[in-house]
Structures are given as C-alpha cells and as structure tokens.
Amino acid sequence: MTSGDRRIVVTAVPGTLPVLNWGCVEAAVRTGFALGGKVNRVSHFDRKHYFYADLPLGFQITQQDHPLVTGGMLPVRVDGRKEPLSVPIQRIQLEQDTGKSLHDQHPDHSLIDLNRAGSALMEVVTEPALSSGEEAAAFVRTFQLLLRHIGTSSANMEDGSLRVDVNVSMRSGDGRQSTRCEIKNMNSIRSIVKAVEFEAARHQEVLSKNEDVARETRTFDVSSGTTHALRSKESALDYRFMPEPDLPPLVLTEEVVAELERTTPELPDVSIARLQSAHGLSAKQAATIVSIPGATRYLLAAVELAATRGVKGCDAVSLTKWLLGDLRKSLNNAQLDFSSLPASISEARLLELLEAVESSTLSARMAKPVLEAMVAGDTRPVDVVSEEVSGGAQLTDAAALQTMCKEILEAHPKQVAKFLAGKNNMM
C-alpha cells in the first residue's frame, strides 16, 4: 500500500473499507498455540472510539469481547530465581495499528507519523503477574525469542516490529493499591526496566501522601529517565465499544486450525534441549542457535542432508561452529540472515564446501573467501569459485611439494646463501 493509499484508509474517506490481513491471523494463531492458549474458532471485531492525533479515523478496530486467542502461559527465567516464573497470558487479539506520535523531534510541537497507521497488528496481553522491571524485561526477552523462533515476527524493538506497553500499579503497606497507569510504546528492554522503576517510585510517593494516582496514559523520556502524562485514561464505557460493521466475524475451520497447529514449530526450550541431547551441542551453542531466526531449521536440515549423503565431518557440532563463525559473519557483512538465505548458500551448497575442506582440497582459511562469494550469490561449483578467489585447490602431494620447493630454491641462490649464513628473516 502506498503512503497515499494508506492516508485514504486511515482518514476514513467515504467508500474505503478495512480488509482482513490473513498473514496476521496465521501469526496470531501460531503464537497462541506456542503459548498454550485456546484458539477460538469464532472471533469478532469491535470499534474502540477515542480522539487522539495519531488516530484521525476516530476509532480503532480491535477485538474487545471475543478475541482470537484466550489463555496460555509463558515460562520466564529470571536472574536470582531457581524456578521459571509462569506468566499467564490473558488474550491475543488482532488490531488496527495507529500512527506514531513523535515528542522529541520539535521543541514546541509533537509530530505525527501515519506510515504504520491502518496496518494489522497482533497484541498479546498478560495477566498482572510481574512484580519488577527486571521481571518485565525477562518476559520481553523470552517472548522475543519465542516469536523469532516460531517465525511469527522479527520482534526487533529498534524498528518497531515489537512494541511494549507497560501497565504499572503499586500496593502500599496499608493495603491500598494505586490506580493503574499505562506507559506506551516502549522500544528497548533497558527503557522498560527504567520506566517501571521510575513509575513504581512515583506511585509509592503519591500513596505515601495519602493521595490518589490519576489514571493516565504516559510516555517514557529516555534522556531524563522519567515518565510524563500524555492523556487521561478512559474507562471501557468512554470508549463506546460497538461491533465493527465492515468486518464479519472471523470463522476458522477445523482444517485450518489443525494445519496451523501442525506447522507451529516447537518451543525454544524444547529445541535447545533437543540440540543438546540428540546432537551434542553445548548449552551455550544450543541457546545461541535457537536465538538466531532460521538457524535451527538450517542446521537440522544440513545435518539430515549430510547423514543422507554420508558426508563425513559434517555432524551437528562441526556445522554449528561454521554457522556461528564464518557463515554468520559473512551473512552479517552481507546484511542477510538465516531466514532469507539465497540459493547459493543452501544447506547442500554449504555441505559441498565443507566436503572440500574435509577432503583437504581446501584449507579452512581458503574456504572463507569461497564462503563469502557464495553468500554474495555465486552459484558456480565450489572448485570453480575457489580457483578464482583462493587460487584453486591446496597442494597436498608431498612429492609435488618437494619439487616445487626445490625449484624455488634453485631460482633464488643469493637468498638461499644469505639464509644459510644466518639471516633467518629471509623466510
């Protein structure tokens, strides 16, 4: 959709209608299965009305009463705790994204970016089970890994693929609880920790004065480490929810749900344990492979192919060293990742290169520029590529090496004499 088309939809020009994004539906269902939630065969869309500059439409399409997924749980490992923290999931709902308010671009005004407005998003809502900024950060890290591992999102906070809204309330010593405040659109884990710590201290101070905390939507200022009010928070009645008239109920057939469940990858912890027990990777290697989108699938496919072809020296441990070393470095230099590899560096192509190394046709050092050429898109056979970028195969025949050395020495008698006279730096 062009920016011009997006503007027409976002501003609700008469005649424009919303269209369901099926890719977002699939992502939400797979995420629901990964979290152990219940995927509802029938879900409904609602209009949530409120006035704000980043929502020129005047309402947001959401799923207030009948979301796509309900329930679920995410185990989160938190530093200092022996057992994982179980964070219950309340719901996963589909929504229409809003624009982005920019409060740090102009000294006197807030700017509005409507580029993402109107696009589909998946919102995951937890139950209030987190009790510190560190726990919130650990949850986000774990959830980020889950999304990347099952392939439903890149979950990059720096480019807005994953945004976090944090709701904070405090309970005083006498049992009084502060009103919940929401801190919108956190885009880094460090900011989440600092924002929760500041907001918790602010609530505690208000409660200590026997005052009430205003229900607000707030923003976090990275430079000052403080939160500031954006707008007062409406109640559910103020939003005037109503059924979305332009989108029918979302009905999923049993066949569709079963196929999405079948194709949802195993959880990251399961993959890590399997890479260790079945393939001999260390805990660190397994965790690193699983944390890289697409790397687990690539590794296991390469291991299976190597076993089928009987390729020696290409077990999971050996392949992992290449994946986490030279291949990962070459991909980073080419701004690629394991989820978007060109055919020139498919699993079969990598095995072709490693076979040449295993047979001593190429040394590991000679293989590196060949690997870089393959990552860059070179689909020619390995021996052809190596001839061009590494000077061909390495010489391993002892007799041929002796003949070559003898010829070199005979061609440089002066240098040989100097070396024999004690000038060792001639080498």
Total strand count, please? 16
Query: CA-to-CA gap between the ends?
Result: 64 Å
Beta-strand share of residues? 15-25%
Largest sheet, in brief, is: 5 strands, antiparallel
Q: List the total number of helices.
A: 14
Radius of gyration: 29 Å
Structural class: alpha+beta
| Topology as a string of helices (H) and strands (E) | HHEEEEEEEEEEHEEHEEEEHHHHHHHHHH
Instruction: State mean pLDDT (0 to 100 scale).
Output: 88
Low-confidence stretches: none
Fraction in helix: 40-55%
Overall morphology: elongated
Structural account:
- The protein has 427 residues and is of the alpha+beta class.
- It has 14 helices and 16 strands.
- Strands 1, 5, 6, 7 and 10 form a five-stranded antiparallel β-sheet that branches. A four-stranded mixed β-sheet has the order 11-12-13-14, covered by helices on one side.
- Strand 6 (73-76) and strand 7 (85-96) form a beta hairpin.
- Helix 8 (295-309) crosses helix 10, helix 9 (316-333) crosses helix 11 (364-375) and helix 11 crosses helix 12.
Indicate the topology:
Layout lengths: L2 H8 L11 H13 L3 E2 L2 E2 L2 E4 L9 E4 L6 E2 L2 E4 L8 E12 L3 E3 L8 E3 L6 E7 L6 H18 L13 E5 L12 E6 L2 H20 L7 E6 L4 E7 L9 E2 L6 E2 L2 H9 L5 H12 L3 H9 L3 H15 L6 H18 L13 H12 L5 H12 L6 H8 L8 H14 L1 H8 L7
Parallel strand pairs: 12-13
Antiparallel strand pairs: 1-5, 2-16, 3-4, 3-15, 5-7, 6-7, 7-10, 8-9, 11-12, 13-14
